[in-house]
Specification:
Elements (H helix, E strand, L loop, with lengths): L2 H8 L3 H9 L6 E2 L5 E2 L2 H15 L4 H8 L5 H32 L8 H9 L15 H7 L8 H26 L10 H25 L4 H6 L1 E5 L7 H15 L5 H16 L10 E5 L4 H24 L11 H12 L19 E11 L2 E12 L8 H11 L14 H9 L1 H4 L8 E8 L2 E10 L17 E10 L1
Antiparallel strand pairs: 1-2, 3-4, 5-6, 6-9, 7-8, 8-9
């Protein structure tokens, strides 16, 4: 029979059964697969052990009984003598407590010498001795072979592993494979990312557990997973364990189901019940001090920083400074790609297709390096824009190509540049005076300048960009220069 049946028949819990086996009081046979196979004789032995431990007979004395080096009568006689001594001592304690209570003694006036002398006297024969009982729970708390539960330690180890796998996925997808996104990736992108993460989780975790018993998080928190036979898990066993943990422990990562399963698993583990994915596993907790705890917290911070950097890297153009004109146009084409640039649109008041009566673009090149870009739009009604989409693509492609850092102009984030572009429509009313306006912004070492010259024969030049009906024209100039 398996250990679950033995637990039911004997009333003992798994840790106690394993403890008695470790102490050599029990020797179940092993099946071909390495699992224990308990016999009826093993059950009878465990019941005997349970009875004798209730009588406070030590494990060593039980071992002597099994080896037949001492008789049960001798052990019982010795135990009765110990019980008599315990009862006498308890009676003396009871008498002293009653006397102190009767005399209303205080701590400051306590006559300790007199009470100690009274305790050393023999117990009065007419007094009924007190009885001390020992429950199964007391014995179970003593006869165990594993550490107390560490639910938060185990959860934090899994948390650390999960975010490390996410970081590795982001590095492979964005840095190695060169996949990029801007603001709103498609649902297909998310789905492929989840599948990639699950593949890494199952393969990496199963491999590490089958070779070392650790993952990175488990090693940092001192949690080792082995088979209950003492060997490492096989790859298949570790793989099956991960599936069970994903299903029962994380609820397939479905939002509400995940929370429910985490709470249920926590209560199950705290109550000493075996978790579904821990069957036939031994969980060993190694000592970990404050230095290890600090290292684990530092690891979380570094992983978080790595994830942020990987996400930011994915939003930058493929070609970085110094740029040629050809590389600049490749960057522009990258942001025009609808697969990764679905958030890019014209910053307009009314949604119409731009009609350009005139457009020019010029470059300033030095030693084959693009130093400045100037774009000019001559727009007539009804397509008068704050900034056409081509200008937005150009700003992102040029500004984000620079290798800015803290010591050469400051870090330039995609979010900051994007916020500048999207804020033009809200900020431009304060910029237009007498049909003209200008705004300038510095990003790292690139200065971006936008100018507007508006003409409206009806006399509404200052409001031209915000009228529902366009009647005039606008000359918009975008200049970007690397200083």
């Amino acid at each position: 029979m398996d250990i679950r049946e033995v637990e039911i028949k004997t009333g003992l819990e798994r840790p106690n059964i394993r403890y008695y086996e470790k102490e050599g009081l029990l020797s179940p046979v092993r099946r071909a697969n390495g699992y224990r196979d308990y016999s009826d004789e093993d059950v009878r032995t465990l019941l005997k052990i349970r009875l004798l431990r209730r009588l406070k007979i030590s494990v060593e004395q039980i071992r002597q009984l099994q080896e037949d080096t001492v008789s049960l009568q001798f052990i019982v006689d010795s135990r009765m003598q110990a019980i008599a001594a315990e009862q006498e001592d308890l009676q003396a304690q009871e008498n002293i407590c009653r006397t102190i209570q009767t005399e209303h003694a205080t701590y400051s006036a306590l006559d300790a010498a007199r009470y100690l002398q009274m305790m050393d006297r023999p117990a009065e024969p007419h007094k009924k001795p007190s009885r001390e009982t020992y429950s199964d729970r007391t014995i179970r708390a003593r006869d165990v072979v594993y550490d107390p539960p560490h639910p938060f330690r185990r959860y934090f180890a899994a948390f650390l592993d999960g975010h490390l796998y996410i970081l590795i996925c982001m590095f492979l997808i964005f840095v190695v494979f060169g996949v990029r996104y801007v603001d709103r990736p498609s649902p297909l992108f998310y789905l492929l990312g989840i599948l990639f993460y699950l593949a890494l989780y199952f393969l990496a975790e199963s491999f590490l557990l089958s070779r070392t018993g650790f993952t990175f998080g488990k090693w940092m928190l001192g949690e080792r997973i082995i088979h209950d036979t003492g060997r490492f898990l096989t790859f298949q066993e570790a793989y099956q364990r991960n599936w069970k943990r994903l299903l029962y422990g994380r609820g397939l990562d479905l939002p509400i189901v995940r929370i429910w399963r985490l709470i249920k698993s926590y209560r199950q583990y705290e109550n000493g019940e075996s978790l579904e994915w821990d069957d036939h596993n031994e969980i060993e907790f190694l000592p970990r001090g404050r230095i290890w705890a600090a290292a684990a917290i530092l690891s979380v911070l570094l992983i978080g920083l790595g994830r942020f950097c990987a996400a930011e890297y994915a939003k930058y153009p493929p070609n970085r400074w110094p740029l040629t004109v050809q590389q600049y146009h490749e960057n522009v084409a990258y942001y025009k790609n609808p697969q990764y640039g679905s958030d890019i649109e014209n910053v307009v008041v009314i949604d119409v297709v731009p009609v350009h009566s005139g457009y020019t673009e010029s470059y300033e090149v030095e030693n084959d390096t693009l130093q400045a870009v100037t774009m000019n739009w001559d727009l007539h009604d009804p397509a008068v824009y704050v900034l056409p989409a081509d200008g937005r693509y150009a700003i992102l492609a040029y500004v984000l190509s620079q290798k800015a850092s803290l010591w050469n102009g400051g870090y330039v984030s995609y979010a900051r540049v994007n916020a500048f572009i999207n804020g033009l429509k809200a900020n431009i009313p304060a910029l237009i005076r007498d049909g003209k306006g200008q705004t300038q912004n510095v990003f790292g070492r690139v200065t971006v300048t936008l100018t507007w010259e508006l003409t409206d024969p009806t006399g509404h030049a200052d409001q031209l960009l915000f009228l529902k009906e366009k009647t005039g024209s606008a000359v918009i100039t975008l200049s970007m220069k690397y200083e």
